[in-house]
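User: I'm new to structure prediction. If I give you an amino acid sequence, what do you actually give back? Let's try with this one:
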Amino acid sequence: MIFAAVVLLNDGDTAGGDPYLPGGQPPGQAVKYKPGKVANACDAVDLAAIVRLGYPSKGKPLHEEVDANGTDGSLECQAEFENANFAGQADFGWDNDNELFNSGKARTIATPPADSTAQAISGLGESAYYTLRYVGNAAYTTIEAVVAAKDGNLFVRTTFKVYGAGIRADREDVRRLAEDQARIMLERLR
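Assistant: Good question. You get back a string of structure tokens that encode the predicted 3D arrangement of the chain. For your 190 residues, that looks like this:
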């Protein structure tokens, strides 16, 4: 078996001195968002808003931050509450993926998952949408809102889910909280 490697040499003429890597940021093109704006991914969201909505926190949130090279990276915050959970994710490498995001958005809105509705959101980044899932009966209710937004090179996704027996949750409140958290992420990561 023969293995071959291709090496692309940088002649030093690229903007910033870094070679262009396929899938990365082209040389000289400014990015709107960069990793490192928050040291802890949970600082990019407002978990206190969930408590104010009536869901006491259950333990310390989990967080992960990845700064690949100063322009690419990701972060994630996960938090548990009584009868609810939240996750906020951000990916800084979406600078050239408008078509991928918009086709996923169109597909989701046209055919939402079972027990769900989906709709575009205006005024949230360059493009955004939500899905809202409701499953309920006299014994148990689940409401889950997922918001996905793209702005420049940043993709954010927030998921807020409430569940339980006898809970009195409003679908619109759940959806609005997920949307507000996505908006906060875009602001705090700029």
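You can read the tokens as a compact description of the fold. Here is one thing that stands out. Confidence is low (pLDDT under 50) at residues 1-28.
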